[in-house]
Amino acid sequence: MFTGLIQSLGKLKPLGNDYFQISCTSSNSYQILQDLAVGDSVAVDGVCLTVVEVLPQGFVAVASPETLRRTTLGAVPDAWVNLETSLRAGSKLGGHFVTGHVDAIGALATSTQTANAWEMTFAAPPAAHSAWQRQVAPFIVSKGSIAVNGISLTVADCDADGTWFAIAVIPHSFSETNLSYLQPGSLVNLEADILGKYVAKFIRSGSKHHSEPWEETPANSLGTITPEFLAEHGFM
User: How far apart are CA 76 and CA 111, in angstroms?
Assistant: First the structure.
């Protein structure tokens, strides 16, 4: 489990056979390396990876074929990646709950600098549009949370179908993450808010049709959502 608050940037280098070397050379890399051990989990651009070797200035991690298929890892050699170590009990939760399990790949559409922020919009690339919509779109809501390359961000605006969304990034977050390296068309890892997924699951449990999470819940099934139901499942 992670928070979406990036601790450092690193350089990602594919080693072959699903192994990656992450070099940590920035001034705040100590936050990643100070007590890093084999078996630890590190979010690399929002992807939860397991450390298999600790290096003097970095570490080696391994990714499964499913992880490579669903994320941007390895797509761009020597790419800058966002790094965050796993959340510890008692730590501050300044972002939102991020699992490190990427739902789908999206793409930067526009990036505009304003007086006090960077306004960025994201959409699905055409080839992945269908999968992206099903896995992410239902959980994108205005003022809700989403992780982009592992960064906890607030949705400033989105369309009704969730096929695009906008965020406003403060200068500090922009300069301290790899958002500053993105160009229109750059691919990003997207993870929807897990709390929204659980709410959708509870709502679906009231439908005998058990529709998929991206399908519209039958209107007559909403009658099963009562104050008693919400209280029983911890929502009240």
Answer: 20
- Tokens 């982009």 -> residue: 148
The rounded distance, in Å, linking the Cα atoms of 155 and 166 is 6
The four Cα atoms 228, 230, 234, 236 give a dihedral, to 10 degrees, of: -80
What distance in Å separates the CA atoms of residue 196 and residue 116, rounded to the nearest whole number? 30
Identify the three-state secondary structure at position 28.
coil
Cα distances (angstroms) measured from residue 18 to each of 31, 50, 65, 73: 25, 12, 7, 10
Q: What is the pLDDT of residues 159-198, one digit of tens each?
A: 887 789 999 999 999 999 999 999 999 999 999 988 888 8
Residue that is written with structure tokens 């960077």 in the block: 118
Residue 43, token pair as written in the block: 């979010």
Q: What separation, in Å, do the N-terminal and C-terminal C-alpha atoms of the chain show? A: 25
The string of DSSP codes covering 107-124 is: EEEEEEE-SS-EEEEEE-
Residues 7, 5: Cα–Cα separation, whole Å = 6
- pTM, 2 dp: 0.82
